[in-house]
Amino acid sequence: MKTIKFFLSLIAFMALTFSLPAQSSEQPWYIVDYMKTKPGMASKYLECEKAWKTIHAERVKQGIIAGWELFQVRFPAGSNAEYDFATVTTLKGGWPAIGKLDASWNTDYTKVVPKDKMPLVENTGSYRDLVKTEVHALQDAAFAPENKPFKYIMVNYFDVPDGRWDEYAAMETKLVKPVHQLDIDAGKRVGWLLDAIAIPTAHDTYDAVTVDLYENWNDVGGGGGEDAWKKAHPGMSQEYITRQIEGARKMVKQEMWVLLDNIQ
Q: Mapping DSSP to helix (H, G, I), strand (E, B) and coil, where does residue 115 land?
């Protein structure tokens, strides 16, 4: 069985507690696992995740997790890509929820996984390498009503200058979010999220992630046009907007993911 263990020293835990922006225990936390499939094993890996899905479903039923999603990283792609799949496990209940999930790895799930699928679960490492695991903490979000489904997401990774998180967060939530909301209202996207990287706390490349959710392929990367900006911020010049955005963060990378499976 695959295992996830969080070895945090007291110093690291204190760093998490005191450096992470204010977080309600009701706001979701996300465990993001990045996977690289072994050569020729992509289809076998997907079979493996299908077997694991029965375990994730049981965890949802028991209240250990709130949801699970499997994504293919469509772009960037190729043999030199760092990873080609990712899973996102949603937790509610703050930091204690992570401990509850960690403890659940000792549970015997053989009763929920069909016997003919157990070899897939037990040999997970034969199909893929776990490249890295991150914990993201939701800071803000906007969604279309009635839980409108999404299929594609753009994941944007940002480096925030030291000591300027509040400035960055204000830029995202007060300047940019209203434009995202107009795109959502116009049906051009399903939602938008802003996450802080909770673990690792001393990330040397990026500190924040925004996620744009889309229902349709043709909408991906769209929205945020001139008319939307003028409507959201009448009288504000494009030069001023650009300075505010570019001065608050540096984009490290952007990825396009496709939702393959999920449990809610």
A: helix
pLDDT in tens, 29-59: 999 999 999 999 999 999 999 999 999 999 9
How far apart, in Å, are the Cα atoms of 103 and each of 31, 51, 80, 96? 15, 20, 35, 11
Rounded CA-CA distance 103/65 in Å is 12
Q: Exposed (0-12), middle (13-18) or buried (19+): which is 63, by Cβ within 10 Å?
A: exposed
Burial class of residue 171 in the structure, from the number of CB atoms within 10 Å of its CB (0-12 exposed, 13-18 middle, 19+ buried): buried
Average pLDDT over all residues of the chain: 90
The confidence score (pLDDT) of residue 25 equals 57
Q: Which residues of 85-119 are buried (b: 16+ CB within 10 A; e: fewer)?
A: bbbbbbbbbbbebbeebeeeeeeebeeebeeebee
Distance CA 108, CA 58 (A): 11
As a 3-state breakdown, the chain gives helix, strand, coil percent values, each rounded to 5, of 35, 30, 35
Class of domain 25-261: alpha beta
The one-letter amino acid code at 133 reads T
Instruction: Report domain extents, the chain.
Output: 25-261
Instruction: List pLDDT tens digits, range 125-143.
Output: 999 999 999 999 999 999 9
Digit-coded pLDDT (tens) for 178-215? 999 999 999 999 999 999 999 987 667 999 999 999 99
The token pair at 102 is 């960690």
- The pTM (predicted TM-score) of the whole model is 0.90
User: Could you tell me the CA-to-CA distances from 204 to 147, 197, 248 in Å, in that order?
Assistant: 35, 11, 17
Q: What does DSSP assign to residue 173? A: I
